[in-house]
Amino acid sequence: MQVLSPKLPSWVVVLGCLGGLAAACSSDGNSMTGMLPADHEVEAWVQTDRPLVLKTDADLYNQIDGAGPAYLDRGWQGAVEATYGQAGQSLYVAIHDMGSADNAQAIFNYELPISGTTIPGLDGAVVSTGSTSCDGSAFVGRYYIQVNIDDGSDAAITSLEAFLRAIVDRGKARS
């Protein structure tokens, strides 16, 4: 699985319902940002920076270092990203609007790690762990979700899974 990795020590948090993300926004003002957990909703995690929106192909290319075609070929419409911090750790979230449920599942399958494990009770979600980080991904409706934490401990995996569950639950409400 390719998880977006930060280019800077501190990520820019991506939120909002602007311009090219109109497809991800409903008439009542809901957007992908509403799928992001609020500060302290998952343990003591809080967002660490201002919002940022990926709304153009160029935005996508700038963030994912050459993996853009895989997303664009599968219907990418836009994305929101957020970085959370807790006790010196960093957790990164990306939610991609893939335009349809089929496209979201297609990019999920494309990015599926060789050695990932499924998350019990959470259909369409996997976790892949290493000694220094943990990656998770899921899809719900038209959205493909990525979460990365800079720690491979059991506690980090628990946090990552909690983020995936919170985001998927919100995605189900939008589907």
Structural write-up:
It is a single chain. The protein is an alpha+beta fold and 175 residues long. The protein is built from four helices and eight strands, in the order E-E-H-H-E-E-H-E-E-E-E-H. Strands 1, 2, 3, 4, 5, 6, 7 and 8 form an eight-stranded antiparallel sheet that branches.
Summary keywords:
175 residues; alpha+beta; eight-stranded antiparallel β-sheet; 4 helices; 8 strands; globular
Task: Write the topology of this structure.
Elements: E1 46-47, E2 53-54, H1 57-64, H2 68-72, E3 78-86, E4 89-97, H3 101-111, E5 117-119, E6 122-129, E7 134-140, E8 143-149, H4 154-174
Antiparallel strand pairs: 1-3, 2-3, 3-4, 4-8, 5-6, 6-7, 7-8
Summarize the entry for a quick read.
This protein has 175 residues and is of the alpha+beta class. The chain contains 4 helices and 8 strands; from the N terminus they run E-E-H-H-E-E-H-E-E-E-E-H. The radius of gyration is 15 Å and the shape is globular.
